[in-house]
């Protein structure tokens, strides 16, 4: 089916630290993994306790939990310090009256304060909602409105994008910065933290109580709140151990922002549940900064994304050679298809096999992976982790034989599976429409040896630089622009970003196509929604293809773009 399939990169001797895939799978039982946790006996649990306090209390108080650096800061935060700073923040929230189950959003750049706030929120049993700092007003509004958040932690710089007046449920704005003059409803983070007690009575919750709410995009409607519970720690801990292969001495760097699920499941929970030292680099992507982060912190395990690897590749082998990256022993990737070319390049310049992993916001944790001990087939996502089963289904739920393309599905349940879509039970049910399976929305096939190969999305969701963008959100923003009558948005293949966003637009009467207008429309989306959601390409059309019920046919736009046949047009308007 795929000529790349023949290529195999052998597992090396140093990878023998893990039992073979077959051995790990046979007789696997999640309840054995549960025994690792203190709550196994009591039934009461708290993710932040297991991630931080437990280690701080077990002799790792002075071990570095977080190496943080950006252009102006360079800090090491110990497990002991992370425990007390998150305790303090828990106390700040309690003093404000925030309770178990309340939603608290965090909207700020990656800094040690962000991590203290995130853990402190979890410690009091509140549900944390992390927001990517690049979100603009509409994106922030949608998420706070839908979740009815009671508090937000943000910075004075980002505050103008929080429409406080329009959010009646939002009682507290906690501002992180220097010399904060807190107005009504506002709280000075630093001042409050300085006064708060180091001691906190942790809220012991049930395994099925709310932990985190990650908003993500689908092909229709506003972003949906994917709801995860404390029970997810079982999978975070286990995959941290067997997929990230984390050991006590490891210095681990996940390059994702906590605004996305990778940045929490594998940027917060998995590494700390495993007692590793976590690295966070603030600021924007720059190849030199990235390599110096590895060199300076002696990063051993590195988890990043294809788009970053491709950008590092285009920065040239010479850039790699300027740094000592010999500390690296395990490299992984997630978020979009990992090109075989990138895998080969990684082997050449880093002397590392880049291990692809597949999962989604909804799955909460890794599911299909290349284990350290497994041969890699470049271009394949790997095999389902122990304790899980994946299959390729037809649209009626029948399991297809090897080499047949179909719906990538996972047998339910697994520990970190989402437990609901906030405010939207119908949407939740859609994922489970084929009885006994979670239907991912990705299409794939499985080869004879059980390796899974990603083929594409079944729906119109766009994956640009590993970020999931819903075409509907972008279209909704576009039609708010005074010149735009109608808009249809698609993902256009792009060598660096995987896909870029392309918008087809028909103009209102009185407006003429021009490059200035294109730039203005792109800017409008960038400033209203988010930079990564702005179309990089715009094409004006007199008319857009629509169904008779008025729905814009994105598949026709895509066919136009790719020069492919437009397929069945029987439902088109005229
Ligand atoms: O299409 C798949 C793609 O990213 C989608 C999930 O996006 P998100 O929820 O934002 O989570 C990203 C990180 C967990 C999937 O439906 N995707 C993710 N990993 C891979 C991938 N596509 C190909 N190969 C992967 N390894």
From TrEMBL:
Origin species, per record, is Paenibacillus hemerocallicola
EC numbers listed for it are 6.2.1.1
Cite the Pfam families for this sequence. Answer: AMP-binding, AMP-binding_C
A GO BP term here is: acetyl-CoA biosynthetic process
GO terms (molecular function) for this protein are: acetate-CoA ligase activity; ATP binding
UniProt entry keywords in alphabetical sequence: Acetylation, ATP-binding, Ligase, Nucleotide-binding
Encoded by which gene? acsA
Q: Which InterPro entries match?
A: AMP-bd_C, AMP-bd_C_sf, AMP-binding_CS, AMP-dep_synth/lig_dom, ANL_N_sf
The organism's place on the tree of life at top rank: Bacteria
The record's annotation in PANTHER family points to:
ACETYL-COENZYME A SYNTHETASE, ACETYL-COENZYME A SYNTHETASE 1
Can the keyword ATP-binding be found in this entry's annotation?
yes
Q: Name one GO cellular component term.
A: cytosol
Recorded protein name is acetate--CoA ligase
